[in-house]
Amino acid sequence: MTTARRSDTTRAAILEAARERFASDGYERATIRAIARDAGIDPSMVMRYYGNKEGLFAAASEIELHLPELGGLPARHVGAVLVTHFLERWERDDVLTGLLRVGVTNAAGAERMRAIFAEQLGPVARGVCPDPAEAPRRAALVASQILGMALTRYVLRLPPLVDMPPEEVVAWLAPTVQRYLTADAP
């Protein structure tokens, strides 16, 4: 195995271990030593590649939301498509749940969450809302619904919402998300 391939493999192992550790322990309790142990490497390798815990967290929390293309979709379906997409992502992605946990307790985690939603949800809102100048505000309102749902369903695990089938969650949230994105401003 070449040095470059070994380096890529080591980086991947570190990031996977870091994502799992940040998700389970949160930012404050996760340690470089524990992450290195989980990755099966020496802690100095984590420091070599990422510099410090903040650098490692930044790399581990690089998340692509893979938002659906909404351009060709009838406007009346935008809310349902987005809510369905986010539910499916949260159902299968513990990294998002971990980042949400960190985001409510740590400034770096909150900043990372803000950046992800601004960079990835902002352009979606700009593409479908009646006035592109309102896109940041509308994207923030959509994020409030999506993150509120995720916090109560996947972090706090409130029984009524945890027990609700995804289709029912979509039925309740989609009209609100739809209104935030496509309705005239109040």
For the record, the count of structural domains works out to 2
Kindly state the mean pLDDT as a whole number? Answer: 89
Radius of gyration: 19 Å
Q: Characterize the biggest β-sheet.
A: none
Strand content bin: under 5%
Instruction: Give the helix proportion (percent range).
Output: over 70%
Structural class: mainly alpha
How many β strands by DSSP? Answer: 0
**Shape assignment:** elongated
Question: In brief, what are we looking at here?
Answer:
The chain has 186 residues and is mainly alpha-helical. It is 76% helix and 0% strand. The radius of gyration is 19 Å and the shape is elongated.
SSE layout:
Blueprint: H1 3-29, H2 32-39, H3 43-50, H4 53-60, H5 78-92, H6 94-103, H7 107-128, H8 135-155, H9 159-163, H10 166-182
Helix pairs in contact: 1-2, 1-4, 1-6, 2-3, 3-4, 5-10, 6-7, 7-8, 8-10
Characterize the structure shown:
The protein contains ten helices and no strands. It has helices at residues 3-29, 32-39, 43-50, 53-60, 78-92, 94-103, 107-128, 135-155, 159-163, 166-182. The protein is elongated. The chain is mainly alpha-helical. Helix content is 76%, strand content 0%. Helix 1 (3-29) packs across helix 4 (53-60). The chain folds into two domains: 3-60, Arc Repressor Mutant, subunit A, CATH 1.10.10.60; 75-182, no CATH class.
